[in-house]
Specification:
The chain has helices at 68-74, 147-153, 157-161, 204-212, and strands spanning 5-12, 15-22, 25-29, 40-45, 50-52, 60-64, 83-87, 92-93, 99-101, 109-111, 113-119, 135-142, 145-146, 166-174, 182-187, 190-196, 222-224, 232-234, 239-244, 248-256. It has 259 residues and is mainly β. The chain has 2 domains: 5-52, SH3 type barrels (Roll); 60-256, Fumarylacetoacetase-like, C-terminal domain (Fumarylacetoacetate hydrolase, domain 2). It is globular and about 50 Å long. 45% of the residues are buried.
Length: 259
């Protein structure tokens, strides 16, 4: 199978399938596209297909303070090495699924537009020069954050980990050059963030080298590369969209969640 293209995950009759989006059709695949001996098993119309998060990561590793403009926005010094934290797999949702605002716990939930790297080959202690060989492709990610809890706790696990706080999608795009892509976010159609991945403090090869020396990366794992300036609050009833050049737009409504 050609490893290039747009890859999605589709819910069909209650069953999840990986697929390749090819124009007006989605070619359903026998397994995740980064596995060996994957073949096409069927095809369905792309129109009306129910897309879910395009992968099922065993872990989501995120970068904090990794855009120069975002560091300036918050008055942070540029970090000497990548600042990493994690979100749990239980926080993952896909396109058009609802971000649940847990208003019993927090009064400030923010969007954060990010380019995400999807790992395609097991990576352990990988040098930067060889790091891109472990990448399958790239997608959009919204690192939803309870900002007041992040500040109150002094560490970020609770603020980043609520169910639905990691929208990913709509597709994984393989074979693109990620070093200078436009990254934007919109809330209710209004532009909120606008930058380019050329603003990254640590590029993707350096990130993979650093992370893979801390923990082994498995196929399907996701690395979120950080957010640019312009983060801000969401409210129930809002619609937030993350748009990345050559990848597409990830759209999610926000609903009230209570306890």
């Amino acid at each position: 199978m050609n490893p290039l293209g747009r890859f999605v995950r589709v819910e069909l009759h209650g069953v999840m399938h990986y697929g390749r989006h090819n124009g007006a059709i989605i070619e359903l695949l026998s397994a995740a596209p980064w596995q060996s001996n994957v073949c096409q098993i069927a095809e369905i119309p792309a129109a009306g297909a129910v897309l879910r998060a395009p992968c099922q990561p065993s872990k989501i590793i995120c970068l904090g303070v990794n855009y120069r403009d975002h560091a300036q926005e918050f008055g942070h010094d540029l970090p000497a090495c990548p600042l990493i934290f994690m979100k749990p797999p239980s926080s993952v949702i896909g396109p058009d699924e609802s971000i649940v605002y847990p208003d019993y716990w927090t009064q400030r939930v923010d969007y954060e537009a990010e380019l995400a790297v999807v790992i395609g080959a097991r990576a352990r202690r990988v040098p930067a020069a060889a790091a891109l060989a472990s990448v399958f492709g790239y997608t959009c990610l919204n690192d939803v954050t309870a900002r007041d809890l992040q500040r109150a706790d002094g560490q970020w696990t609770r603020a980043k980990s609520f169910d639905t706080f990691c929208p990913i999608g709509p597709a994984i795009v393989a074979g693109i050059e990620p070093s200078d892509l436009a990254v934007r976010s919109f809330v209710n159609g209004e532009l909120r963030q606008q930058s380019r991945t050329a603003q990254l403090i640590f590029g993707i090869p350096a990130i993979i080298e650093f992370v893979s020396h801390v923990m082994t990366l498995e196929p399907g794992d996701v690395i979120a590369t950080g957010t640019p300036a312009g983060v801000g609050p969401l409210q129930p009833g809002d619609v937030v969209e993350i748009d990345i050049e050559n990848i597409g737009r990830l759209r999610n409504p926000v609903v009230r969640g209570g306890s």
